[in-house]
Amino acid sequence: MNSVKGLLAASVISIQNSCFIYPACQNCLSRLILDSRRFNCLKCGCTGEVKDASYRYRLSLKIADTSDLFDITVFGGCLDPFFGVTAENLQRYIQDFIQLSGETNAEASTGALVQAVETCFIGKRFIFGL
């Protein structure tokens, strides 16, 4: 991982995507391609069973300091304190909720979660390591 080159104090203007958890390759951290029972990493060729896939946070934000706008993406465990759980556990909670509620539209079920993330980040000021 690269060392921090500088710090930027900025406010979050918007969340750029509503999918902030992704299945990640344990070797290279790239997004995995999932089918019904297997996963495949296009970058390094790693394969396995979907039940063994790990998950990682990826939060794309539009931020502003006093003079500029920036598009940034925050990855990984540094988001654990904001969500209160690891991405792996949050994904498990989401899947359990969908199963228990009998919801057939997964996107509708996660709408409240997206709204909560927006409430927690939009309009707040953070110090970003670049």
TrEMBL record:
One of its GO terms (cellular component) is nucleus. GO terms for biological process: negative regulation of intrinsic apoptotic signaling pathway in response to DNA damage. Residues 9-95 form the Replication factor A C-terminal domain. InterPro entries: DDIAS, NA-bd_OB-fold, Rep_factor-A_C. It comes from the Eukaryota. It holds the Pfam family Rep_fac-A_C. This is DDIAS protein. It comes from Onychorhynchus coronatus. The gene is Ddias.
